């Protein structure tokens, strides 16, 4: 029986990831370089410890530009793109439905809390969550399962009693390692990522209600993709 749902944040609830990639691509282009998506994908849903797009550009420019200069250039473009950002379609409805169903609701993010907090406040999302776990609280972020294992402990549920909602390969891997049911809801950027061995994949939360997702997961053990 499903007792809890645990959501990723960046890219899943609010698509901050696609604008970030576009901002990097714009700056790379200004230097006559390209940032392949398959390379950038390494750091989506995790930290820049895996792949750092700032230092990578500095390296291919043979260190003629300081990474800090690149960071400032990307930040300017990124902030411009985030000005009118909104929760992804169906997100608020999922949270409301989870509350109505009496489910415990968790948030597990590889970002730091001071990054999430302004968005949680702006979109009035704080009150939905019974547990919020971010990079501040763990030794390792996704794809390590620590964030999900911490969420399960705080929500007081077993892995098989919880559903994870993720948009990235690193997030999906973390949830899978922790033993949760895995639902993939890719965004514009991650829609081409090679997800495998998930429980369910849907194009958006708007395309299928939470009750139906739970019903499908409780009734089937095979991988299913809704197009």
Spell out the blueprint of helices and strands:
Layout: E1 4-7, H1 17-30, H2 37-40, H3 53-60, H4 67-82, H5 91-100, E2 104-108, H6 113-122, E3 131-133, H7 146-155, E4 162-166, H8 169-178, E5 181-184, E6 200-201, H9 210-219, E7 224-225
Parallel strand pairs: 1-2, 1-4, 2-3, 4-5, 5-6, 6-7
Helix pairs in contact: 1-4, 3-4
InterPro entries: HAD-like_sf, HAD-SF_hydro_IA, HAD_2, HAD_sf, PGP-like_dom2
Family: Belongs to the HAD-like hydrolase superfamily. CbbY/CbbZ/Gph/YieH family.
Protein name: HAD-IA family hydrolase
In short:
This protein is α/β, with parallel strands linked by helices. The protein has helices at residues 17-30, 37-40, 53-60, 67-82, 91-100, 113-122, 146-155, 169-178, 210-219; strands at residues 4-7, 104-108, 131-133, 162-166, 181-184, 200-201, 224-225. Belongs to the HAD-like hydrolase superfamily. CbbY/CbbZ/Gph/YieH family.
Describe this structure in words.
The chain contains 9 helices and 7 strands, in the order E-H-H-H-H-H-E-H-E-H-E-H-E-E-H-E. It has 227 residues and is an alpha/beta fold. The two termini are 26 Å apart. The model has no long low-confidence stretch (mean pLDDT 94).
Characteristics:
alpha/beta, 7 strands, 2 domains, elongated, 227 residues, seven-stranded parallel sheet, metal-binding, Rossmann fold, hydrolase activity, HAD-IA family hydrolase
> How are helices and strands ordered from N to C?
EHHHHHEHEHEHEEHE
> What is the count of structural domains?
2
Poorly predicted sequence stretches spanning 5 or more consecutive residues: none
Task: Figure out the total of helices.
Answer: 9
Radius of gyration: 18 Å
Report the end-to-end length measured between terminal Cα atoms: 26 Å
Q: What is the average per-residue confidence, as pLDDT, rounded to a whole number?
A: 94
Total DSSP E strands: 7
> DSSP strand (E) fraction?
5-15%
Structural class: alpha/beta
Structural shape: elongated
Q: Outline the biggest β-sheet.
A: 7 strands, parallel
Could you give me the name of the CATH homologous superfamily of the largest domain?
Answer: HAD superfamily/HAD-like
Query: Could you name the CATH topology of the largest domain?
Result: Rossmann fold
Give the CATH level 1 class of the largest domain: Alpha Beta
User: Which percent range fits the helix content?
Assistant: 40-55%
CATH architecture descriptor text of the largest domain? 3-Layer(aba) Sandwich
The strand line-up of the biggest sheet is: 3-2-1-4-5-6-7
GO molecular function: hydrolase activity; metal ion binding
Pfam family, one: HAD_2
Keywords: Hydrolase, Metal-binding
Family: Belongs to the HAD-like hydrolase superfamily. CbbY/CbbZ/Gph/YieH family.
């Amino acid at each position: 029986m499903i007792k809890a749902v645990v959501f990723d944040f960046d890219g899943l609830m609010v698509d901050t990831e696609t604008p970030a990639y576009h901002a990097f691509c714009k700056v790379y282009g200004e230097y006559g370089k390209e940032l392949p998506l398959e390379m950038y994908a390494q750091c989506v849903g995790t930290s820049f410890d895996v792949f750092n797009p700032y230092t990578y550009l500095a390296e291919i420019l043979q260190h003629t530009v300081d990474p800090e200069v690149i960071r400032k250039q990307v930040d300017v473009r990124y902030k411009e793109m985030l000005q009118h950002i909104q929760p992804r379609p169906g997100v608020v409805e999922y949270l409301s439905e989870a509350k109505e169903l009496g489910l415990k609701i968790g948030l597990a993010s590889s970002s730091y809390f001071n990054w999430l907090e302004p968005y949680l406040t702006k979109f009035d999302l704080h009150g939905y969550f019974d547990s919020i776990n971010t990079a501040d609280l763990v030794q390792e972020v996704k794809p390590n399962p620590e964030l999900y294992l911490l969420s399960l402990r705080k929500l007081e549920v077993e892995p098989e009693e919880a559903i994870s909602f993720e948009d990235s390969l690193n997030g999906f891997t973390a949830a899978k390692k922790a033993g949760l049911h895995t639902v993939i809801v890719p965004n514009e950027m991650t829609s081409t990522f090679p997800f495998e061995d998930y429980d369910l994949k849907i194009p958006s939360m708007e395309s299928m209600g939470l009750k139906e997702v739970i019903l499908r997961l409780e009734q089937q053990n095979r991988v299913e993709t809704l197009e």
